[in-house]
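Handout, section B. The chain below has 172 residues.
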Amino acid sequence: MAESLPKEGRGVGPSSELAGKVRHQEFIGEPLTPVPLTGDAVAMARGEPGLPGRFRWRDQTYRVAGVIGVWKTCGPCRNGGGEMYLRRHWYKILAEPVVQPPEEAQEPEKLPKGARRALPQRLQERQAAAILMTVYCDRQARNRKHPKDRWWVYTTEPVENDATGAGRLGAS
């Protein structure tokens, strides 16, 4: 299945072992909010946007567990010139929800040496809910009223965890 690119320009899509598998992508088109001080400083030093290590989306904090692909798209000059401009930086990422301990579990209790605290079932289920996301950063903000809305979730794909903890695409 070939990945379609946005109408805005041409780019080179991610090439990985995941590209040939059947996927159930869901278009999202919603902004995400980077957690401050988690951006990729090395990328920012090169003049590229720093992919946030953590971000908030739909009232949930996620961490970037892995980057699967990176590409860029460009488009023609918007003022009638013949130049091409870099418009977006795209990232295919594996995002995991950050599990917040319940309020009552903030105080650590003393456990015998070597004992492990079991997570409540609700938290164990949340840990396994990783999502494959396509996110992008607009080089120029779309809306002057919201100039900080530059990071967007484009699509999501479910990831199924097997017994070994490794992810598989195509879960519904």
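Note. Residues 1-16 have pLDDT under 50 and may be disordered. Compare this with the example in section A.
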